[in-house]
Each structure stands twice: as structure tokens, then as C-alpha cells.
Amino acid sequence: MSKFEVESDVKITSSEPLILVSTISRENVPEQPHWIHRFSGIFYALTASFLFTFSTFMIKQLGVDLLDALLLRFFIQVSLTLAFVLYKNYTLLSGTMLQVFLQIICAVIGAGGFVIFSLAVRYVELADVNTLGYTRVVWTVVLSAIVYRERPSIGTLIALPLTFLGVIFVTQPSFLFYSKVESTMKTVDDKHRLIGFILALSCALTSATNVLLFKQLISISRDIKPSVLNLHFATAMFLCLITNQIYKIVHLQSMPSFNHFLSWRFLLASTICLITIIASIITQKAIKREHPAVFSLLSSAEIIFALILQNLFTNVRSNLYALFGSTLVISSVVVLGIARILNERNQAKKRKENIEKC
């Protein structure tokens, strides 16, 4: 539930010119960073992944609807983000009509993906939702290649089949994985699992689309600030949560009582949701200190954390097929991350050689 709100003020600038130093001495050699600072990005990324996974897992175990528990969190987030944007004198909606339209679409898709994630958790285990949701890394690369008309890299060609096989092993469709158990209860459970898997994959696709729109918006105009886009997302999400409460009252005729909102389960779930705000801040620090590809690799630890929590604290045990599928999805993220790092190193090496030739 972390990937719909990247909240760092990203600035797209040209690379800095290479400064050639004629003589090297102790005075002009930059001091190497301490090992704690060097690995702090890794620590921040893993901590944020654990906090996001732990909070969602605990809320589900408490039996509280995630869409109810998130109300307090997003009310506070909207208030704080709005205060920050007003303090910075940022324009709430800037740019051309097309750019304004894309900002609205970006917020709606981001909030929609978050809602879909919350619904998916109702039907299947968090570990399965995280595994299928993390295919968004591959879908982002695929959609980026289509939109920007880029040739697929070797890493993408390797990651795609790994992701496809991982999805098959996690979902375990009945026409491929035969089960001797046949009952009405199993049929109902299979329907719920199918709904959850479809929602999880939809969440991955919406997240990939949201990332591309976010990147496009902050690239085409300096007036469009990431913090403003985050305010749009938080506002859209808060409106979705209010709409969900109205839907329960009007359509389902389920009037929530004050006893429900004052129960220890709901209060504890709402408090746990506030932890994700801290996790979002930690995520910003990780993004600033680590390579984007490395950050994506470390964030996939959410799958591992969810599997550990599920198998340690619930009666649901992951079978070998599900574990193998999760491994394949993580492997696809690793392949893409390594390919991206190697590609950027090669580009940096070529730029350096071109500068030396000049």
C-alpha cells in the first residue's frame, strides 16, 4: 500500500559537468561517507517495506475493514499536505488544460489502485496480493516501452516470462493444478480467490499506469510539483473513503454506530494506519539515498515479510507452488533492477569517454 504515494520533490535536471582536477591531494579528495550513511538507504527501504506490510497484516487480523481504518490516516495526510503546499505557495492545479486533465486522471488512478488493493486483501492473503501487486514493476517497464516506443531490453525479455510463470504458480488455476478436494465450500473459496487475484493484478496495472503518469507530469512542467500531485492523490483517496461510508449507509443500509468507531479494534487499526505515514517519510529518504532500481529490489521484500507473517501468525500455510511463484516474481524484479543498473553504468561510461575525447 506504499506505492501510490511517492512524495519527494523530484527535479529533472541535466547531468552535472565533469570537473577535471589536475592534481590530487588529500585536501581535494572527497571524504568517503561513513558505512552507516552508505547503507542507510537500504535500511530505510527495508524498514518502510516492513512497516507497510506489518500495518496491513495487523489490520486484517483485527478484522477491521481497511477502507474504514484508513479514514483517520488520510484525513491527517490531506491536512498536512495541504498545509505544506499552501506554505510553499504552490499552485493546486497548474499547466495547460491537458496537463490539468492528466493530473486529475493521475489522482483518480492512484486512489483507485489503493481502493482495489484494499478490496483484494478481503478475498486473499496479503502475501498473494503483494506478490501479484509487485508485477507492477514489470508492467511499468512494458507500458513504458509501448508509450515511449522503446525497444525491449534483454532484462525485460527475461523478466516477462518469469512474471507470467510467477502469477500462474501463485494463483494456481484449477485447470492446471488439480485438487482432489471437491465441495461447495471449496467452490465458494475458489470464487473468492479468483476475485482477489483479479483485483490484485488490476492493482498492479493501475499502479504501473499511475507511475508513468506521475513521471510524465513532473517531467513536462516544473510548475507541477510532486507534493501537489500527492495532495491530489490523498484528496481523491479521502473522497473514496467517504463515498464508501455513504455507500454502506444508503445501499447496504448498514449504519455504522459510534460503538464501532470507538471499539478498541477500530481505534487500534486506525492508530496502526498512522504508522504508514511514518513509512512514507522513510520511503522518501530511501529514494533520495538509493538508486531507483535498488530501491525497487529492496521494496520487493514486502512479499517476503508478508509470507513470514502469514506462516508464523496465521493458520494459513503457503504451499510450495505459491512460494515458488513468489520467488519467480522477486527474480523478475531482481533481473530488471540489475539490468537497469548495468545499463546506466554503461551510459555513464560512454558519456565519460565522449567527454575525454572532446
What is the oligomeric state here? single chain
Largest β sheet strand count, sense and barrel closure: none
Number of strands: 0
Beta-strand content: under 5%
Helix content: over 70%
Total helix count?
A: 14
The geometry reads as globular
Series of secondary-structure elements, N-terminal to C-terminal: HHHHHHHHHHHHHH
Report the uncertain regions.
6-30, 181-185
* Rg, nearest Å: 22 Å
Mean pLDDT: 79
Class by alpha and beta content: mainly alpha
Question: Termini, distance in Å?
Answer: 48 Å
Detailed description of the structure:
With 358 residues, this protein is mostly helical. The chain has helices spanning 35-38, 40-61, 66-87, 97-123, 126-133, 136-147, 154-171, 184-220, 226-250, 258-261, 264-289, 292-299, 301-313, 320-357. The longest helix is centred in the last third of the chain and has 38 residues, at 320-357.
